[in-house]
Amino acid sequence: MEYTTKRLKHCDLIQVSGRIDSQTSQELEKVFEAIIEEARFKIVVDMSDVEFISSAGLRLLINAQKTCKRLDRGEVVLANVPKRIYSAFDLAGFVPLFRIEKDVVEAVGSF
Amino acid sequence: MEYTTKRLKHCDLIQVSGRIDSQTSQELEKVFEAIIEEARFKIVVDMSDVEFISSAGLRLLINAQKTCKRLDRGEVVLANVPKRIYSAFDLAGFVPLFRIEKDVVEAVGSF
Amino acid sequence: MDFPKTETFPGAGSSLEAINTFVTEAAQAIGLDEDAIFGVQLAVEEACDNIIEHAYAGASKGDIECSCDIVTDGLKIVLRDSGRPFDPESVPKPDLDSPLEERDIGGLGLHFIKNLMDEVRFEFFPGSGNVLTMVKRKTPAG
Amino acid sequence: MDFPKTETFPGAGSSLEAINTFVTEAAQAIGLDEDAIFGVQLAVEEACDNIIEHAYAGASKGDIECSCDIVTDGLKIVLRDSGRPFDPESVPKPDLDSPLEERDIGGLGLHFIKNLMDEVRFEFFPGSGNVLTMVKRKTPAG
Ligand SMILES: Nc1ncnc2c1ncn2[C@@H]1O[C@H](COP(=O)(O)OP(=O)(O)O)[C@@H](O)[C@H]1O
Ligand SMILES: Nc1ncnc2c1ncn2[C@@H]1O[C@H](COP(=O)(O)OP(=O)(O)O)[C@@H](O)[C@H]1O
């Protein structure tokens, strides 16, 4: 897994690539924590280059979503979700729990 | 010239492709006017697919910039400016008059 | 590629990618389509996560042996571990639809495995350990 | 491609793309590099805009005749129109650096033409009209 982050005016963008599995989700969790610790709760995750996600990765995302949505202070929005990755979200019953945008511009522009 | 527009939360995005010349800049001017008429003055122009711009096109952009920047209510920000198009801006002395961002996400995320 | 093929991996997170590659190559050789391959990858990943996290948790860790074989219209994958016995019947169904705040996210692994594979069988053999047998069949053409 | 080549276009905005294509093909045939071609395109565009907007403005409109020829190390372009005479000396230099609110954006066309072409000559012949001769030389290699 690799990632880059970008601080924008109204949100933070995380671009993730590769595998989000039980190993790498711990590293990705730290990325979310670093953003959330600065009291920034609007996060866009660009999933376009995510090749694989297991339930461990899904668990990380749902936990981040719970934290960000608390007190209506923000939200994790997903962008460019590949078909396979979407099907894992679907199987987990997670589709209704995330706003999923077509591209990063829509997602960033929604905050 | 072809264009698409997208209403985002804090700004409007215009994606332009083709030639911005003395013919087509009138059409593009209407696009800016329609946005500005709704009291929206933060506009991102995605220039990635602009193939040609003449002084007529530059004039349109500078006029839109004047309108948007008045009273500090907004700004026209350019994104993905191709090298050739940039050189026309440069020759016109327009580079200092526009914020030019690397990509649309940066530009949209800056508002 | 000759079947069956078997490989043994250390029961640790660092093996996940190698196991994934191993089963993917078998699934491709047998001619599963892309969707089926993705299902195999995810099911095997979840099964290995569980072996590492639950079967071997705390105890001295062991290996994961992975075998791939051709069966009628599909691929059979057998995962063996020497960890503590596991009875999947004891695991409650996952929560797939409560609202975000109440969503309990345990149990997804087994849910994935059962949904993505066409046959799933958990067995425990005292002395040797757990055997998880999974079959993924080719999607009928047309 | 044989030089000189000449083509006549209606003096209207709808001719701009065709004129652009015409000079681009000549510039490519002569072997100008991409930057030089872009300069030619922009200069010719500005010159034609001026003919349409100023030389033919209000009066009965005429044509734009465009000729391309090879000269030492470059391309010569001649644009002829039958509109009103034009003396470029009468045009003040453009404003290239005042702040946005005060920026006057007239005069950019001539500024572009003079900066992008290596030689520029405006002539007026009573009875026939304006002749604008522009030369773009190849950028020296290396
Ligand atoms: N291979 C295994 N060995 C022992 N216990 C297991 C094994 N797989 C699953 N379990 C038990 O079943 C529960 C549900 O597993 P699973 O569906 O993968 O969800 P999760 O691991 O996310 O809780 C686990 O919490 C664990 O208690
Ligand atoms: N071909 C022409 N015929 C007549 N007048 C011209 C011609 N070209 C330019 N002009 C005059 O010179 C001025 C400056 O021209 P130019 O630099 O192209 O800028 P712009 O047309 O944007 O004002 C014009 O406003 C016009 O008055």
Count of distinct structural domains of chain C: 1
**What value does the average pLDDT of chain A take?**
97
| Quaternary status | heterotetramer
The fourth-level CATH homologous superfamily of chain C is: Histidine kinase-like ATPase, C-terminal domain
Short description:
The complex is a heterotetramer, with two copies of chain A (111 residues) and two copies of chain C (142 residues). Chain A is α/β, with parallel strands linked by helices. Helices cover 40% and strands 32% of the residues of chain A.
Structural features, described:
The complex is a heterotetramer, with two copies of chain A (about 110 residues) and two copies of chain C (about 140 residues). Chain A has about 110 residues and is an alpha/beta fold. Chain A has one domain (about 1-110): Transcription Regulator spoIIAA (2-Layer Sandwich), CATH 3.30.750.24. Helix content of chain A is about 40%, strand content about 30%. Chain A contains four helices and five strands. Chain A has helices at about 25-35, 55-70, 85-90, 105-110; strands at about 1-5, 10-20, 40-55, 75-80, 100. Chain A has a five-stranded mixed beta sheet. In chain A, helix 1 runs parallel beside helix 2 (about 55-70). The model of chain A has no long low-confidence stretch (mean pLDDT about 95). With about 140 residues, chain C is α+β, with helices and mostly antiparallel strands. Chain C has a single domain, classed as Histidine kinase-like ATPase, C-terminal domain (Heat Shock Protein 90, 2-Layer Sandwich). Chain C contains three helices and five strands; from the N terminus they run βααββαββ. Chain C has helices at about 15-30, 35-55, 110-115, and strands at about 5-10, 65-70, 75-80, 120-125, 130-135. In chain C, strands 1-2-3-5-4 form a five-stranded antiparallel beta sheet, covered by helices on one side. The longest helix of chain C has 22 residues, at about 35-55. The two termini of chain C are about 25 Å apart. In chain C, about 40% of the residues are buried. The mean pLDDT of chain C is about 95. Chains in contact: A-B, A-C, B-D. The interface of A and C includes residues 19, 56, 63 and 97 of A. The structure holds adenosine-5'-diphosphate (2 copies). The site of one adenosine-5'-diphosphate has 12 residues of chain C, from helix 2 and helix 3.
